[in-house]
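User: Sequence recovery, please. Input:
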């Protein structure tokens, strides 16, 4: 045990320290997205379910500015939802949005801050406060919200986490000189406005300073949900609803080279079918087909004239030692193939085994042995006569002892 702790004690201690630090580190507030597919605490998955329940219509997520999305359409009544920490509106976006409100649309706009011209036009300057610190402490701190009694909403105060209700509109700016004088729908515990309504033509704009109330976490909270339901009650039933996620997430359009094709359902299905068929071909038809490997042709020349010319070149150049070496290599192969005798340069004593098995003539075997030992055990020059005598002895050996011992 001591040996184990001595070897791994440092790593065990390091793992313990890291685990303890992770355990006692407070959980920070995660980012808010309001994205339709985000099921995390501060995503927008539940928001789309609530909007569909109140309007009986599917929610369309839009990742384009309002002026661009509705550029070629006539004004019509719809439900529009804009949720973001900051709404950076252009004047063209507001002109297009205002024309749709005048045509009878209901717009729910929840934000902590907006473009200067929009705040000035709507008489809705905001006092913002961002919470920092551990998530548990932030969510435990509660704030009281109250609807105006003139509305058909609960009279009792509604307790929501302070993180969602910390932002409010500046009361002194609501009575400024403007054609758009908002109606206060709800206040916080300090009687600061948190929910406004602007009636514009046939429609209305519901402006909230609490975008966090439209996250998954607060929509699942019983108390917070009561306040959100009050906001949703202004939506028109059986009317298309558009969630403009562009103002928080930006453009999430496909950047694929096939985006024009993938945009249309029929073309997209055709691309998927083509890709599926290509995959089937690769799996079934693309197998490697085995082919017979052609036999390698070995080029050799056994022409007698060629051999004579080659031997003449060796003889004329005086390569006697080289010629003798090749002849001895053939002699070694002959012995090994026919008699299983392995003759090697460093084992001249194997000649005794040859003599014992074949009992050759002493003079014949002596000539071959002398040439073999001179070739591998000395650097003396080999004369043409010695090469000739050796070749004659080898030729006689092959002829006489080709099939074993001479009888």
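Assistant: Recovered sequence (407 residues):
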């Amino acid at each position: 045990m001591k040996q184990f702790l001595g070897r791994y004690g440092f790593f065990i201690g390091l793992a313990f320290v890291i685990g303890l630090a992770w355990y006692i580190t407070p959980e920070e507030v995660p980012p808010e997205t309001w994205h339709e597919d985000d099921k995390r605490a501060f995503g927008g998955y539940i928001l789309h379910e609530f909007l569909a329940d109140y309007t009986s219509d599917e929610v369309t997520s839009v990742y384009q500015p309002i002026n661009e999305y509705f550029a070629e359409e006539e004004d019509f009544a719809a439900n529009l939802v804009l949720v973001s920490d900051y709404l950076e509106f252009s004047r063209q976006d507001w002109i297009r949005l205002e024309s749709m409100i005048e045509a009878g649309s209901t717009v729910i706009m929840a934000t902590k801050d907006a473009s200067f011209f929009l705040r000035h036009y709507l008489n809705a300057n905001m006092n913002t406060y961002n919470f920092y610190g551990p998530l548990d402490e932030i969510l435990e701190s509660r704030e009281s919200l109250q609807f105006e009694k003139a509305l058909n909403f609960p009279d009792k105060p509604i307790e929501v986490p302070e993180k969602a209700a910390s932002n409010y509109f500046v009361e002194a700016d609501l009575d400024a000189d403007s054609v758009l004088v908002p109606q206060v729908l709800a206040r916080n515990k300090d009687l600061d406005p948190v929910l406004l309504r602007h009636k514009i033509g046939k429609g209305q704009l519901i402006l909230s300073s609490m975008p966090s109330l439209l996250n998954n976490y607060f929509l699942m909270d019983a108390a917070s949900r009561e306040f959100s339901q009050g906001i949703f009650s202004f939506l028109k039933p059986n009317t298309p609803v558009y969630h403009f996620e562009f103002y928080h997430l930006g453009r999430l359009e496909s950047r694929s080279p096939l985006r024009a094709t993938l945009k249309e359902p029929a073309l997209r299905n055709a691309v998927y079918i083509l890709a599926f068929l290509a995959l089937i071909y690769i799996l079934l038809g693309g197998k490697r087909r085995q082919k017979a490997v052609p036999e390698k042709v070995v080029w050799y020349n056994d022409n007698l004239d060629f051999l004579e010319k080659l031997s003449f070149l060796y003889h004329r150049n005086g390569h006697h030692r080289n010629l003798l070496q090749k002849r001895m290599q053939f002699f070694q192969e002959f012995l090994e193939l026919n008699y299983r005798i392995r003759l090697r340069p460093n084992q001249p004593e194997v000649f005794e085994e040859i003599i014992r098995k074949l009992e050759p003539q002493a003079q014949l075997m002596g000539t071959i042995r002398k040439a073999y030992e001179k070739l591998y055990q000395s650097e003396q020059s080999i004369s043409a006569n010695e090469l000739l005598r050796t070749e004659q002895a080898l030729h006689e050996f092959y002829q006489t002892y080709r099939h074993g011992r001479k009888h």
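Residues 2-24 form the longest helix (23 residues).
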